[in-house]
Design brief:
Radius of gyration: 15 Å
Structural class: alpha/beta
CATH architecture: 3-Layer(aba) Sandwich
CATH superfamily: Peptidoglycan recognition protein-like
Number of domains: 1
Distance between the termini: 50 Å
CATH topology: Lysozyme-like
Number of helices: 4
Order of helices and strands: EHHEEEHEH
Number of strands: 5
Length: about 160
């Protein structure tokens, strides 16, 4: 089964920039929010993750963890989950160079797999009143998917 995908939705975990969290932390937060995965999907991928809503999580060191199966409907963008894939970056608005590289590589691969897919930030979806993922995805795409100034962990700006 290949469910039709119209959008890749980029999220941030809204955690302190640079602080380590992993997929199990997000699974716990999503359990507390009332999310629950179907048992059949859990049996196919990441059985231990009973609640995670995202398909991918990008750690501060650039490692990428899987959450839901790509054919499994996510729980990350209310009203849009059926046709989207959710990618979450640990942090809020400044990400490590390794995270930016993993995001670039992951999105590039998914664009090839799902021809014509649109890449958006969570905040870009209609009726979403959030700053997530903490940067402009349109600007990131226009910048050849390179890290955006002011959004790189450890980067300093004099006078700001």
């Amino acid at each position: 089964m290949n469910r039709p995908i119209s959008h890749l939705v980029i999220h941030c975990a809204a955690t302190p920039n640079g602080r380590w969290h992993d997929v199990r932390d997000i699974d716990l937060w999503h359990r507390q929010a009332g999310f629950r995965r179907n048992q059949n999907w859990r049996a196919r991928q990441n059985e231990e993750l009973g609640h995670i809503g995202y398909h991918f999580v990008i750690y501060t060191n650039g490692a990428v963890a899987t959450g839901r199966h790509l054919d499994e409907v996510g729980a990350h963008a209310r009203g849009f989950n059926a046709r989207t894939i959710g990618i979450c970056m640990i942090g809020t608005d400044r990400f490590s160079p390794a995270q930016w590289e993993s995001l670039h590589n992951g999105v590039s691969s998914l664009i090839v797999r799902y021809r014509g897919v649109k890449v958006v930030g969570h905040r870009d979806l209609p009726e979403v009143k959030k700053t997530c993922p903490g940067f402009s995805v349109d600007d990131w795409l226009a910048n050849q998917m390179q890290p955006l100034p002011g959004h790189v962990l450890g980067e300093t700006h004099e006078g700001k």
